[in-house]
Amino acid sequence: MYPSSALWRAAELSLLHKADFPRIPAILDLGCGDGYFSNALFSSKGLRVDAGMDVSLRYIIKAIKNSSQSHIYKSLLVGSAVNLPYKDRSFGIVFSNCVIEHIPNVQSVLSEIQRILKKEGQLIFTVPTPYFGRYSYIYKLLNISGGRYLAELYRSSIDKRLDHYNIHDVGQWEVLLSKAGLKLESARYYIKPETARICDLLEFIYTLGIWKIRLNALLIRGGLLLERIGIKFHKTVIIALYYKLLNNYLVKEEATDHGQGAALLIIASINQKISI
């Protein structure tokens, strides 16, 4: 996992760990990926996940391997969020962490979630916000030097590169949920501007590199050079450097009350006014 992703996931894990999950069976992890995140989250709450589903067979295979000891998932399968392979009113909780923004037909996804949720159930999901790209250093620089048009063009390029189809604010999500027969119960911003900027910077340096030189590769090569001259260097040193840098931002992230953030935690339930 890249350092930028590690910081982002750590902030999410901290936030969701404090969230009060209703004890309503059963739990669906929609877009479970490799299962690492939910393993950390639900095991800390003393909960097991009844079903994990992902569109990627490769990730489901990884999730099976990763949960072989913890047994956090009771079942795992490959499936599509626009056509969920579950009976009506099957789940008390549908949980989805940074997944729904990647699915083009979001209205169909929300309607399917409404179908499988129990009457008293909850949809708990996280998504990036429009501030996600606007908090970056490059966006800020372009906005100052080249005007808002170039800055917004850069923001759009980020969403395109990351396959972001659904980047909305709270009001827009409330409308989309309502159309699917769901009611917005609460919404909380997280990932403050400083955290988003360091994530963006690390992503740029680590994955794209500067002049084709990646920070991680540079540190490793430096370590190999030190070993050649008799100075022992281990990858744990790199991990320690990352930890020291990222932990400072995580501590600040946890201690700050957010107004507008780069991501949203949304909790929704079935709109009881609608005939079910």
Kindly describe this structure.
- There is one protein chain.
- The radius of gyration is 20 Å and the shape is globular.
- Helix 2 links the parallel strand 1 (27-30) and strand 2.
- The protein has helices at 3-18, 36-44, 57-66, 106-116, 131-134, 137-145, 148-161, 170-179, 193-208, 215-228, 235-255; strands at residues 27-30, 51-54, 76-78, 91-97, 117-128, 182-190, 263-270.
- It has one domain: Vaccinia Virus protein VP39 (Rossmann fold, 3-Layer(aba) Sandwich).
- The mean pLDDT is 83.
- A seven-stranded mixed sheet has the order 3-2-1-4-5-7-6, with helices on both faces.
- The chain is 49% helix and 17% strand.
- It is built from eleven helices and seven strands.
- It is α/β, with parallel strands linked by helices.
**Name given to the CATH architecture:** 3-Layer(aba) Sandwich
Structure classification: alpha/beta
Low-confidence stretches: none
Broad CATH class: Alpha Beta
Largest pleated sheet: 7 strands, mixed
Helix content: 40-55%
Percent strand: 15-25%
Number of H- or I-type helical stretches = 11
Q: How would you sum up the global shape?
A: globular
The CATH topology is Rossmann fold
Averaged pLDDT? 83
Distance between the termini: 42 Å
Order of helices and strands: HEHEHEEHEHHHHEHHHE
Spatial order of strands in the largest sheet = 3-2-1-4-5-7-6
